Amino acid sequence: MLGPVILAASRSDRMRRLISAAPVTKQVVDRFIPGETVDQIVPVVEELTGKGLELTMDVVGEDITRPEQAAAARDAYLRLVDRIKDLELGERVEMSVKLSMFGQALEGGHELALANVRPVVEAAAAIGTTVTLDAEDHTTLDSMFAIHEELRKDFPQTGCVIQAYLFRTEADARRLAGNGSRVRLVKGAYKEPAEVAFQQKREIDKAYVRILRILMEGTGYPMIGSHDPRLISVAQELARRAGRKLDEYEFQMLYGIRSDEHLRLAAEGHRMRVYTAYGTDWYGYFMRRLAEKPANLRFFVRSMVSK
Ligand code: FDA
């Protein structure tokens, strides 16, 4: 029952100030966000790719209030692309972006987000890689899918995320699986009302399997974004039944979560991509990770008390 409370706190400015200022927060944050600057993250990219893993990079940030912040987000991604260019890793390192960070919620936000994300997609394509549009809360998704469709006209490799907890997602999956998209399927990490989303884990897991089957049987490239051992086995079985080879789908997990499993799947010959977040505006990302697993919150509170 703690999850929804933490997710509500993830949108509170007061909690943001309190938690960001707590002296031990940084130590716990480091487990999920291994750097604040491009200089700090490049060695992490080298280390993980050296172990046979692939990456999707996220410059943390969301819910901005001014267009200048959206431009700054675009520039942060462009700096990242410029730095990883020399590593010549091509599609082994792609980018994940949140359109809210590119101005989607501001006035004229749809056009603003599209205008800001396009140069990042172009820069990524120029170094042989691509961008995936993260899924945020349900009110943002029509705009996200429209931007995805627009970008795919010039950059068909552009990916997007769909969330199994939403009732709408089965229909979205059919549309995307039919048009050959790269699609990451996740359970969903936001606090959503019962009118639009399943609330029980069992229902969400069942929806995940139904939607994954649609993606596997389609013509696109499914990306399985989950740490759930049962769903990973189901995905392997569905891929086998759909006649997909090992390079015709991939697994994705978050940095700092089940790291041994990242290596195990990669060693089995699977494409395994680690979602690696970095930057200073880590509050929203960090709080969603706490909400997903109460043990994380206990660890966080214990480290504050024992300080
Ligand atoms: P579940 O929550 O059932 O966890 C299964 C097991 O994984 C747990 O028992 C535990 O062992 C481990 N685990 C999971 N979360 C953990 C945590 N925080 N700390 C420690 N252990 C944990 N969501 C979204 O709404 N939009 C998006 O764009 C994305 N993008 C995204 C990319 C990638 C690569 C991943 C893996 C996930 C996302 N998510 C996301 C988050 C997703 O919606 C979901 O909240 C988390 O992945 C947790 O769900 P699981 O599928 O891992 O299952």
UniProtKB/TrEMBL annotation:
Residues bound to FAD: 163, 187-189, 201, 226-227
List the GO biological process terms. L-proline catabolic process to L-glutamate
**What superkingdom heads the lineage?**
Bacteria
Necessary cofactors:
FAD
The UniProt keyword set, sorted, is: FAD, Flavoprotein, Nucleotide-binding, Oxidoreductase, Proline metabolism
Q: Which reaction does it catalyse?
A: L-proline + a quinone = (S)-1-pyrroline-5-carboxylate + a quinol + H(+)
- Has keyword Flavoprotein? yes
Q: Which pathway does the UniProt entry assign to this protein?
A: Amino-acid degradation; L-proline degradation into L-glutamate; L-glutamate from L-proline: step 1/2
Q: Which InterPro entries match?
A: FAD-linked_oxidoreductase-like, PRODH_bac_arc, Proline_DH_dom, Proline_oxidase
Co-factor: note = Binds 1 FAD per subunit.
Q: Where do the annotations place substrate binding? A: 98, 288-289
* Enzyme Commission code(s) on record: 1.5.5.2
The protein's name: proline dehydrogenase
Which organism is this entry from?
A: Streptomyces zinciresistens K42
